[in-house]
Amino acid sequence: MSRDNDLPETPGRRRVLKGALAAGALLAAPGVAQAHAAVPASAPGGPAGARYTNPLVRNRADPYIHRHTDGSYYFTATAPEYDRIILRRSRTIRGIATAPESVIWTKHASGPMGAHIWAPEIHRIDGKWYVYFASAPAEDIWAIRIWVLENSHPDPLKGTWVERGQLRTAWETFSLDATTFTHWGSRYLAWAQHEPGMDNNTAVWLSKMADPLTLTGPQVRLTTPEYDWERIGFRVNEGPSVIKRNGRLFMSYSASATDFNYCMGLLTADAGSDLMDPASWAKSPTPVFTSNDTTKQYGPGHNCFTVAEDGRTDVLVYHARQYKDIVGDPLNDPNRHTRVQRLGWKRDGTPDFGIPVADNPPKERA
């Protein structure tokens, strides 16, 4: 989430939430915002309206939009060739669609960081820019790990992106989808990783950080695939993203294979709770964002949250395909497009994701 420190964090009543995932704890996002009035996702002017043109960016999966303090939006995502990291800048969310795209880093021809360049995220931390991304050696393309780039220039489209190496976790196993945020003055990293001996592909994990490159531990499991809707095709929990609103923290994540079964789940914690305590977090037993035959959007997921130009309206950013049937491995299908829509809020203060909106391309594309 790119909206930092809306209000000082004030401790709320500690809430032990029934249904918390027994093995995990969750993370936090950058600041507790003012309580929003109930705004359904389908409200006029919301995602059902023509606020945004969708798809926003074609053939870009795992999108991440960072709104910087200067008001600029920085966009990065997975390119379908899995060979580079791209960056766009715009003064508006809509402008990302036509903003020039720069390649800020390219995979190695051999060795580490030589294959499967996935899910980059750009963050501004302590006066420097960081990109967290996943990659594998060219000679062992499924040995995917988390890596970090750093740029000390104030403008991330200038300066030099320096390879700062692998971000080390507790195990040398399949790991990806790192995101970082602060809560109560502490920095955290959340990511997806396979735990040795577990009957899953990936679970989502949390650790505190000593600095942007180093975990301090312990490494705590946030959620593992346990429901049927999280275990279709592959047993996957991945792509964590967090938003803080209305005295609570909400963490979305993606589940199942990357075809039309891909969907999003949600965990919830009180903003005043101990984020490293598993009892602080409740897991929704049903997905919160799924494929929709009416709008013809399939496999929505790997989201992030940003905020509109008014500084108040929350925006859901995600990818989805325009069709259900895929020939071959879904990872080889390039048509996961970046999409955006208003994130609504229910009267109880919880997020209303609604449904993935239908395409509304500009008239010249019609």
Architecture overview:
- With 366 residues, the chain is mainly beta.
- 0% of the residues lie in helices and 40% in strands.
- The protein has no helices and 22 strands.
- The chain has strands at 61-67, 73-78, 84-90, 101-106, 115-125, 128-136, 145-151, 162-166, 175-183, 186-193, 203-211, 214-215, 220-223, 237-245, 248-255, 263-270, 281-283, 298-307, 314-321, 337-342, 344-345, 351-352.
- The strands form 6 sheets. Strands 9, 10, 11, 12 and 13 form a 5-stranded antiparallel sheet that branches.
- It is globular.
Helix content: under 10%
Gross morphology is globular
Oligomer: single chain
What profile does the largest beta sheet have?
A: 5 strands, antiparallel
Beginning-to-end CA distance, first to last residue: 33 Å
The overall average pLDDT, rounded, is 87
Per DSSP, the total helix count is 0
- Sequence stretches where pLDDT stays below 50 over 5 or more residues: 1-37, 43-50
Tell how many strands the DSSP assignment holds.
22
| Radius of gyration using CA atoms only | 19 Å
N-to-C SSE string, H for helix and E for strand: EEEEEEEEEEEEEEEEEEEEEE
Strand content: 35-45%
Structural class by sheet pairing and helices: mainly beta
